[in-house]
Amino acid sequence: MTLLGVRDTALLIRNVELYAPRPLGRCEVLVVAGRVLAIASTIDPGHSLPLRCLDAGGRLLVPGLVDSLVHIGGGGGEGGFATRAPPLGADAALRAGVTTVIGALGTDEVTRGHADLLACARGLTQAGVSAYVLSGSYRVPVATLTGSLRSDLVLIPEMIGVGEIAIADHRGSQPTLDELARIGADARVGGMLAGKRGTVLVHVGDAAEGLSLLHALSTRTPLPASGWHPTHINRNRLLLAQASAWSARGGSVDLTASTTPQLLAEGEVPAAQALVELLGSGVPIGQITLSSDGQASLPQFDADGRLVAIEFAAIDSLLNSLRQAVHQHGLSLATALAAITSSPADIWGLPRKGRIEVGADADMLLLERDSLELAATIAAGSLHVYDAADLRDQFA
Ligand code: ZN
Fold this sequence. Notes:
The protein is of the alpha/beta class. The chain has helices spanning 90-95, 114-126, 149-155, 177-194, 212-220, 237-240, 243-248, 261-265, 271-280, 317-328, 333-338, 342-348, 389-393; strands at 2-5, 10-19, 23-32, 35-40, 51-55, 60-63, 65-70, 98-103, 130-135, 159-167, 199-204, 228-231, 253-256, 288-291, 297-301, 307-312, 364-367, 374-379, 382-385.
């Protein structure tokens, strides 16, 4: 239920334990015009503001989640037209605690395109979910909006990077090192000209070569490893084991949170468990993100490469993975949060996202202290309250 437009009035959130994502203890947070104006143990806003107060009842206040990969226009289609996934709805994202999404095309760049992707992003943003878009496509040569990756990044404000470019996958177009180098260079220069990071999201399939192309790029070109962000690294143990060497070069990795029982049986490592293992092997938290791969198809192929079943990835897998990391694996909440807030914000170059600090966008979640269930989402000017009667009653 949407209770308040916090663009129209200042909101003072009281009685919270703040994770920014680092733990800051008991705080009050003042939101004005959709931005965080003050954080202190006690805030006296004076009398000049039209102000509403929210007593959060001692709940945890954490940054809104930043989802590094969502097929916001709908993915899928690998089983024919009846298997295309629908676009992401803003309500589904906010209900899952996701306040920022990075949207990308999927396998199908024939019936899906960047104009539609951009329209979906703008629709989400208008509905309160900050949405960004990647240029390029699974296939190489890449699909673009304006005719070149560099122009896309320079001219389209929402386009902040490139991807998913598929490697090591039978559904990809088997790009060569030279082709990838050109993509990386265009993303880097286009990003530099526009003041963006220009990160390239790389879809890594289950072929044995894994990250070897990215290592070769890092060795043979001056492009830094930090410009490539390979995803689906937890799809099997062989690939997960390659993450440490990649991170030692300065590269980052993304873990897919939407594991199904079928994928588990096929060897996928749940993202929460993979996160704990990577941290244990020395990969810094700043180089690890989790994404939902929301609205992607999760196709199952038989030994001959024939599609036998398909379902779609859900965006609520980020919060589920957070709970698993904390409750089942004993990871600290601050560290688990970083993988879905500050780390992706840094890797995508979004300084006002993924943190609760003065000047940041007021994208925040209220979580129940023990269960870590979502009680409320504050995003881009609105307060949405879910199963928390005491919060709702304050605005009755
Ligand atoms: Zn992918």
